[in-house]
Amino acid sequence: MTLLDKILSHNEKFVANKEFERYKTTKFPNKKVVILSCMDTRLSDLLPVAMNVKHGDAKIIKNAGAVISHPFGSIMRSILLAVYELNADEVMVVGHHNCGMSSLEPDHILTKAVERGIDRKTIETLQYSGVDMDSFLTGFTVVEDSVRHSVELIANHPLIPKDVSIHGLVICPETGALELIINGYAKKSTT
């Protein structure tokens, strides 16, 4: 049985047994917060518990490294929708120590792509077409700096209202300990 078959079989029982009922909530986050976090599997259950975020409390957006790489990309659009359509009035960017993005190198990824069957000519075509593969596939060196960058990008975005607090934190994936990098309330009171 494939993984997909197992998932679909489980889902059929989940629905038939009405297990979904305990997850009912509205689309609006109870704590009026949107959290951008890393997709690291160590954070899936740990992050919400460490932050006291229960089901229905927050909109949680996950990507590699909790990084906003483009001010008008899908991550920023999701944050804007959470603010304007789902009543979020705070944003928390939560990076973590020992993140895979901290050691990401383009040559390493492209070598693996070729090993998995991507033609080198495809990579060359992308590069010659103006795709900056180094920027696209490079991670960060210091997680705190990456969090600061994402917070500043959100806070200075032309479509983010000034009354939205933007916070930056780093979580330890082993203990759940949170380190405050940027207190959005403090920044808001100085403007």
Automatic annotation (TrEMBL):
Required cofactor names: Zn(2+)
Binding-site list for Zn(2+): 38, 40, 96, 99
Catalysed transformations (reactions): hydrogencarbonate + H(+) = CO2 + H2O
GO molecular function, one term: carbonate dehydratase activity
CDD domains per UniProt: beta_CA_cladeD (cd03379)
Top enzyme class: lyase
InterPro entries: Carbonic_anhydrase (IPR001765), Carbonic_anhydrase_sf (IPR036874)
Domain of life: Bacteria
Entry keyword set: Lyase, Metal-binding, Zinc
Cofactor note: Binds 1 zinc ion per subunit.
Family per record: Belongs to the beta-class carbonic anhydrase family.
Name of this protein: carbonic anhydrase
Organism: Halalkalibacter krulwichiae
Gene symbol of the encoding locus: mtcA1
